[in-house]
Amino acid sequence: MKLRALTIGFAALLTAGCASTASTPTGSPGAVVTPAATEFPLTPPQPGPAPTLTLPAPERRALENGLEVIYVREADLPLVHATLMIPAGSTAEPGDIPGLANFTADMLDEGAGGRDALELAAALDLIGARLTTSAGIDAAYINLTVLSDRFSDALPLLADVTYRPDFPQPDLERLRQQRITALTAARDEPSAIAANAFTRLVFGEDHPYGRLATTETTGRIDRDVLAEFHEAHYKPAGSTLILVGDVDPDEMHPELARVFADWTGRAPQPVAVSDAPLPADTRIYLIDKPGAAQSEIRIGHVGVARDHPDYYALTVLNTILGGSFTSRLNMNLRETHGYSYGARSSFAMRLGAGPFMASSAVFTAVTDSAVVQFFEELGRIRDEAVSQDDLERAKNYVALGLPRQFETVGGVAAQIADLQLYGLSMDYFNQYVPRLMAVTAEDVQRVAREYLRPDQAVVVVVGDREQVEAGLRALPFGPVEIRQAEEVVQ
Question: What structural domains does the chain harbor?
Fold first, then answer.
C-alpha cells in the first residue's frame, strides 16, 4: 500500500479502537452521562496483524560527476525533501583531531557562496526552505526541505553549502567557543562522563569509534584544517542525493546536472573499521562523583554491524530486554524495585560493529543492587527461552511502530539514506514486516547467547565512590578499577 493509504488505515484503526461505548448524553445541554460499569471494556483490545509497508519504487540515476541520485516520488505532496549524504563522518577524520568531521559539518551553513550566515538564512527564509547540516559516525548529511515550486530556487543554495562553504573566521571562533564551553560543562555531567568512559573503554582510544573530542583538539581546528578536510572528503563521487516528494526525475535531473556541474572529484576510500576485541573478562570501572544522588551505570561490549544477517532477531531480542517501556530491564529496575526512573538497552549498529549497551541512572544507595539486576536480566534472556506472549508483543511493537518512520518526506529520505549507507536493498522495507514476524523464540535465545556477553563486559559506574565502592567490590562479576573523569572528558 502507499504511504498515504497506510497512514489513513492506521487512523481508521485508532478511531475505531478509541470509539466510546457510552450512551449519547440526553437532557439539558452540557449534561454528563456516566456509563454503567458493564459498558466499560474489561479486556484490552487485541492488535490485528501487522500491516505490510510498500514504498514507492525508488529510481536511481547518476550525474556525470559521479553523484548518485535516488528519486522517491510522492506526487500528491507539494514538497521536496533532499538529503545529501557524504562519506565524511567521524571515521574519516584524522585520528589526532577527533571532532573535526562534526565541526566541519556545523560550519557549512555559517557562510557559503559569498553569503554570510545571516544572508544565507535570509535567502532560505525568503523561499520558505529549511536547511540543516550534521555529521554522524559513518557519514555527513545536508538536509533541505522546501515547497516543490521553490525547489529550483533552493537548489543553488544547497550547492553553495555543499561545496562552496566560506568558513568565515568570526563564526568559526564562535562555534569553537561553544564547543569548548560544552566540553568543559560535561566534566560536571555524570551522564556525559559515563557515555565517554563507556565509549573509550569498549573501543579504545585508537579505534575510530573510541576517539573523543577534547578542548585541546577543538582548539587546534582552524580554518585551514576545516578547508583541508572539506576539500578531501566532500566530493560528488561516493556521495548520494536522495530526493523525496513531488519529484520528476526527467525534469529534475538536467537541473541537478547544471547546478552541480562544478562539483568534481572522488573522496578517499572509506576507512575500513575493524571490530574492536572483546575484553578477556568483565571489569567494573568506577569514576568518583562526590555527593552524587544518583549513579550512572553503563554495561556492554562490542556488538554487530548494521548489515548483520541476525538483525531482525537482535531487534526482537533488544525490544524484549530493554528497547521499550515494558521491557524487562525497565520493568525490573523501575517498576519492581524502584531503583530508577528508567532502564534501557540498545545495539548501535554501524558500518562496523558498534556497541551493545544497557544503561540507567539509579539511586546511589542501590547502585550495587542495580548492577546485580542488570546481570540477572542479561543472564535470564540467555538461559531461558522467551515466552510466546513476550515474543509476539515485541514483534508487534516493532512492526506497528514502523510506519512512524515514514510519516514525512524527511523520514522517508532518512530511511532510504540508511539503506544506501549500509548497502541494503532498496526494497528492504517491503520485506521488513514478514522477516520480523518470522523471528522465533529459538532465534531470540540463540542470538542472546551469541551476542550478549555478560562475562566479557565493560561496566562503568559514575557515582559517589565513598558510598558505592564497597558494594561494587563485593559483587561477583569482576574486579573494580578506579578511573578519573578527566581521562574521558577533557
Answer: 59-259 (3.30.830.10), 283-424+434-487 (3.30.830.10)
